[in-house]
Design a protein that fits this description.
The complex is a heterodimer of chains A (about 1100) and B (about 130). By secondary structure, chain A is an alpha+beta fold. Chain A is built from 30 helices and 37 strands. The chains are: A alpha+beta (about 1100), B alpha/beta (about 130).
Chain lengths: ~1100, ~130
């Protein structure tokens, strides 16, 4: 570079001189053009050279004006600066401060004297700074500057310096031993290395590194270096004293002070090795602890927690067994858990009878871990002994938040004693467990506290709610901020309803209240009574103040004392009344002190016991008045009265009257000792001697009544107004089979022996009895308890119930027998009736038969004896009559025979197809002759079917009906005969306008012994068999016969004959009856 | 054939016409005067209106029956002495006794012959004096 620089200098000098020359030439203007050209060319060459230089070049004249510079130099000016503005300017225009620098003088020196000045400067100080190496030299008359940008170089140099420095620093402070070595020789090392190996640092520098390693390690090192291995590896180092130790090496090539060397870092890993081993050990412990902590975090149950902790400790694999024992503050066993024992732990604990084992006691007051083993005295009884024989154990107390909760113990194999770290971990664990227990306890406590608080809150609320009070608070301007309390109801408000309103607005109608409130708001604390909402209130006003004594509001309690006032009023009134009573009472009044002495005797007392005023014997105590035999009872009663204040006790005793008789005195005692104005037991008494007698008489009377009640033949039931049986006599059992107890207290409706359908009627009747004052008689049927039906007659009347109210008394008589007797009687009566009827029938028949007989006999005897007295027409008449009578007799006999046949079922019908029309017509014709005074109407439709019937018999029926019609209707009335048909039958009717038949007899007319008995018909002949026979005949045809009638208007008899094909008779074909008429 | 002095007034109370005819014819032949009644009331009326020497009473008559007539007659002092012959179909002894109690002179059972009737009438009339 020097040669180049020199050349450059030379050139620059030449350039400068050329320039001068050029300038001179120019000035002279006589320079030859060639020289000018050459000079220009030269100039250009130089300029070009300048331009192409890599360094900044500046040419200045002796005044330091800038003559020329290259692009590079321009680069140091603000960008965009044009060359023209720079050329010719003084350097001080760009760098004004240059003048003050020594540099300036040096430059001027160089200009004057030549020489070179080189220096390094910094441009653009700051992060963009650039380093320039500037060489200034004389160029011609001026100055030439060559500036080289050495920034990068500078930076690198600095970096290296820094690095070296850092390196040094690190090396010094490192605990690691650092050796810088080259070809195996230590050229640099730090103190740490020297200490590590036990040498002085100076002893090591320059020595061969192999000295400090075991042969195996050195071989390893060489291998590693050769392999370019830069990762750490382990080896054994050799100390000065010859001992070896584990060391970790890490080496790599570096540049140290510009030289490629190796640096190796050494670490004494003895401890680390130990620590590693410990870590392995502790890892398990930590794993256990981590799990335990997880457990602590989530387990809320005490027992589960300690169980879990023991389990986790054993699970970790680190410990053979673990237990936790909990105790209370007194040292009594609270709980325990274990893991790793197959059994025996429980018994072990129980053997201490509720106290904790000695190991727990041993650690209770001990910080830190207690290490024990199977050899230790306090472990003799431990189940670990039977389990493992030999063991190491570490116990630590569970202490946290100022309390010892118990102890934890872990067992390890013999010889494995926990080191400090592990002990410490164990302690920490124990602490955590204790805290966990504490937390649980706290939670429980909190829970309890919360519950207690809730309870207290509820109670408070209840109190507030129950108390007839209002709690309220006002802010300083009287706005209500709080109002709660049950008493608000009395004002028709709800809790909180008034909040936000001004108390002056709320109570604007209670000036007194407002006055008090104002006083309170001014800061006065007091109690006062007000009347608001017609209730009386006792109010306590308590102003609140802040720290400076300003009123921040008023709080208060208003208690509704209306009731209390009223009670007080009532007491006052009662006292007054009492006094009045005392003075005016007819009953005796006394006040007895608790010791039995008489505090007060009312004026009536004297009257009752016969003393005149002032004549009262000077008795002191109540006992003096009362018969000695009654004293024990009196003592008892008095004691009771004293024991039960407020209760009223009635009793009676014999008292001596002045006249010497013993009167029965009834006392009503009430203990009013608590009432100040009374101060003792108040006793009202009256003479009940008479009353007693009356009661006795009444009682006897009742006895008698009861006797009657029980022994009367009827069942007597007493019912109250609700229908509940209040009393019943024993006859109930006899009649109904129920015990009185089964019905007493029951409602009448519930009686089991009356048919429910009848019950309604029964109840109605009974209600009637109770409502009216009449006795109501009922007959009804019921069932006994055994189910047997019975007939009863009950008579119910209204009575007063004992003790007031209305009721009914019912006497019930078992009429079953009577009914039966009545029925038998009725049956007998019926039979007698039948007998009578039969007798009557016989008489009738007899009469009927005898009449024609009499006629026959009479006329015949007349003809026999008195024929000469008779006229010929009389004779003829008599004979005709005889014949008629004989016929009549025959008829009667036939009727009787028919009846007999009917009864024996031998009434045979001779049924043939017949036309009913002619039968009816003939019958009517003949009856018309017999009864000319009657009108007869015959109504026969033309299309009557042929029906199968016995013409003679049916004619008999029709004759009978017509005879009856005529017999039972007056002359001149009409008898109608009609026929009609339906699908199944022929209907014939015979109707008259006679007297009719009562409705209840319409069926009985067909009875064979039946005859209507009326005065009008008594004279008619006939045996009454006709209709019965008619019925038999019609029914033998399969038809029906019946009577319809309206009394007084007439009767109609209907009979039907079934249509049907010609068929044989019922029964067994034609009988052997003859038909004497045809 | 009857004597004027034996002519009596006899009341027949009988509802059966043929028997009435026979009895009254016979009595007339006997020379008596016959009063006829078909029923009890009528008979009693006639008894009260006329002087009757004998009553012939059928017990089975409509309206007031024979027994009632007897009782009424017995109750009435004017009629109590009039002899009564009852004739009836009833044959029981109890009835006979009862009739006798009521002062019936004779009790005839139907049927009866003219001879019997005459005999009885004469007997009773004779007993009652003239």
């Amino acid at each position: 570079m020097k040669s180049r620089e020199k050349t450059k200098e030379q050139l620059l000098e030449d350039l400068a001189s050329l320039r001068r020359k050029l300038t001179a030439v120019r000035k002279a203007e006589a320079v030859s053009r060639r020289r000018e050209e050459a000079l220009r060319a030269e100039n250009e060459r130089l300029t070009g050279f300048m331009r192409s230089a890599t360094e900044a070049l500046v040419i200045l004249d002796e005044e330091l004006n800038i003559l020329d510079f290259n692009e590079i130099a321009l680069g140091y000016l603000p960008p965009g600066t044009p060359r023209e503005e720079v050329i010719g300017k003084n350097v001080l225009d760009f760098v004004p401060y240059l003048r003050d620098t020594p540099r300036y003088e040096r430059y001027r020196g160089i200009i004057r004297n030549g020489g070179v000045y080189q220096e390094d400067v910094v441009l653009f100080p700051g992060p963009e700074q650039r380093y320039l190496s500037i060489r200034a030299f004389r160029a011609g008359k001026g100055l030439g500057i060559v500036a080289t940008d050495v920034t990068e170089r500078k930076r690198a140099e600095e970096a290296l310096r820094e690095s070296e420095e850092k390196y040094h620093r690190l090396a010094e402070i490192a605990e690691e031993g650092i050796a810088i070595h080259d070809q195996g020789v230590i050229i640099e090392a730090n103190e740490a290395l020297a200490r590590m190996f036990g040498y002085e640092l100076s002893e090591m520098i320059g020595t061969y590194a192999a000295r400090y390693a075991t042969p195996e390690t050195w071989e390893l090192i060489l291998k590693k270096i050769a392999a370019g291995y830069t990762e750490p590896y382990e080896g054994r180092g050799v100390k000065k004293d010859g001992s070896t130790f584990w060391v970790e090496l890490r080496g790599k090539p570096v540049l140290y002070k510009g030289k490629p060397v190796r640096v190796t870092v050494f670490r004494d890993i003895t401890e680390r090795k130990r620590a590693e081993e410990k870590i392995t050990r502790l890892n398990s412990a930590l794993w256990a602890i981590r799990n335990v902590n997880q457990l602590l975090a989530r387990e809320k149950d005490r027992d589960a927690l300690i169980r879990g902790v023991c389990a986790k400790l054993v699970e970790s694999g680190r410990y053979r067994g673990a237990w936790i024992v909990l105790m209370d503050e007194a040292g009594a066993l609270l709980g325990a858990a274990e893991a790793g024992y197959p059994g025996g732990f429980r018994e072990f604990l129980e053997s201490f009878g509720g106290r904790v084992p000695p190991c727990v006691t041993a650690v209770r007051h001990r910080e830190g871990v207690l290490t024990v083993s199977h050899r230790h005295e306090i472990c003799r009884l431990c189940p670990g002994v039977s389990r493992w024989g030999e063991f190491e154990a570490s116990c630590v107390r569970l202490e946290g938040a100022g309390r010892v909760y118990g102890a934890l113990c872990v067992y390890s194999p013999p010889g494995m004693i926990l080191d400090e770290e592990e002990q410490s971990l164990l302690s920490e664990l124990a602490g955590d467990v204790a805290l966990g227990l504490h937390t649980i306890a706290v939670e429980e406590e909190k829970g309890r506290a919360v519950r207690a608080m809730q309870l207290a809150d509820e109670r408070l609320h209840a109190v507030i709610e129950a108390a007839p009070a209002i709690l309220w608070a006002l802010d300083p301007d009287g706005t209500i901020t709080f109002s709660e309390g049950r008493a608000l109801e009395a004002l028709g408000l709800k809790g909180g309803e008034l909040v936000g309103r001004s108390v002056f607005e709320v109570y604007k109608n209670a000036p007194e209240a407002m006055h008090f409130l104002r006083r309170a708001l001014k800061g006065e604390e007091f109690t006062a009574e007000t009347v608001v909402g017609d209730r009386v209130w006792s109010n306590r006003y308590v102003p609140r103040r802040d720290g400076e004594g300003n009123i921040t509001g008023v709080i208060g309690v208003s208690v509704d004392i209306t009731e209390r006032r009223r009670a007080e009023e009532a007491v006052r009134e009662s006292e007054a009344r009492f006094r009045a009573l005392v003075e005016n009472s007819a009953d005796g009044l006394a006040v007895i002190r608790p010791d039995g002495t008489i505090a007060y005797l009312g004026p009536s007392n004297d009257r009752i016991l016969g003393y005149g005023p002032g004549e009262n014997a000077p008795a002191r105590t109540i006992f003096d008045y009362i018969h000695p035999d009654d004293h024990p009872r009196l003592r008892d009663t008095f004691a009771r009265v004293l024991a039960e204040p407020g209760s009223v006790i009635v009793s009676d005793y014999r008292c001596l009257h002045k006249d010497g008789t013993w009167r029965t005195i009834e006392t009503t005692s009430q203990n009013m000792s608590h009432i100040p104005s009374v101060g003792g037991v108040v006793v009202n008494f009256r003479d009940i001697t008479e009353r007693r007698r009356a009661e006795e008489a009444l009682r006897q009377r009742e006895e008698q009544l009861r006797m009657i009640f029980e022994n009367v033949n009827d069942v007597i039931i007493r019912v109250d107004e609700r229908g509940v049986v209040t009393d019943c006599n024993r006859r109930l059992k006899d009649v109904f089979g129920y015990e009185p107890e089964e019905v007493i207290g029951k409602r009448f409706n519930d009686f089991p022996f009356v048919d429910p359908s009848f019950m309604a009627n029964l109840i109605e009747e009974f209600s009637k009895a109770i409502a009216t004052r009449r006795t109501v008689l009922l007959t009804f049927e019921a069932r006994r308890k055994d189910g047997r039906p019975i007939f009863l007659e009950a008579s119910t009347s209204r009575i007063s119930a004992p003790g007031g109210g209305e009721g009914a008394l019912t006497l019930i008589r078992d009429t079953t027998e009577r009914r039966r007797a009545e029925e038998r009687e009725r049956e007998a009566e019926k039979l007698r009736e039948l007998d009578r009827m039969r007798t009557e029938l016989l008489a009738n028949v007899s009469h009927e038969l005898r009449t024609p007989l009499t006629t026959i006999k009479g006329y015949a005897s007349m003809l026999a004896d008195y024929i000469e007295n008779l006229k010929p027409e009389e004779r003829r008449e008599y004979l005709a009559t005889i014949e008629r009578s004989a016929d009549r007799l025959n008829e009667l006999v036939e009727s009787l025979l028919d009846m007999s046949r009917l009864e024996s079922g031998m009434l045979r019908m001779n049924r043939k197809p017949n036309d009913i029309g002619p039968v009816l017509r003939q019958a009517v014709e003949e009856v018309r002759v017999r009864s000319p005074k009657h009108m007869f109407v015959l109504s026969i439709p033309s299309d009557l079917p042929i029906v199968s019937f016995d013409a003679r018999r049916i004619r008999q029926v029709v004759d009978n009906l017509l005879d009856n019609a005529v017999k039972y209707s007056r002359e001149g009335t009409t008898v109608t005969v009609g026929v009609s048909r339906s699908d199944s039958e022929l209907s014939v009717l015979v109707s008259d306008q006679g007297i009719g038949i009562p409705a209840h007899e319409l069926e009985r007319v067909f009875d064979r012994m039946y005859r209507i008995k009326t005065p009008q018909t008594a004279r008619t002949s006939g045996m009454g068999l006709g209709l019965a026979i008619a019925k038999g005949i019609v029914e033998a045809h399969g038809g029906r016969i019946w009577m319809e009638s309206t009394e007084g208007r007439g009767s109609t008899c209907f009979f039907t004959l079934p249509l049907g094909t010609e068929e044989a008779d019922h029964g067994k074909g034609n009988g052997p009856e003859d038909d004497p008429h045809h | 054939m009857g004597k004027e002095t034996d002519r009596k007034t006899i009341l027949i109370i009988e509802d059966e016409p043929s028997i009435m005819t026979f009895a009254s014819k016979l009595l007339e032949i006997m020379g008596h005067r016959v009063l006829r009644a078909e029923e009890g009331e009528e008979g009693l009326r006639m008894l009260k209106e006329s002087r009757v020497d004998l009553v012939l009473l059928d017990l089975m008559i409509p309206g007031l029956d024979g027994w009632a007539v007897l009782e009424r007659m017995k109750a009435d002092p004017r009629l109590a002495m009039v002899p009564v012959i009852v004739f009836t179909a009833f044959a029981e002894q109890s009835k006979v006794d009862a009739a006798k109690e009521l002062g019936v002179a004779e009790y005839l059972i139907k049927p009866l012959s003219a001879a019997k009737l005459r005999e009885t009438v004469e007997s009773v009339l004779a007993r009652s004096g003239g």
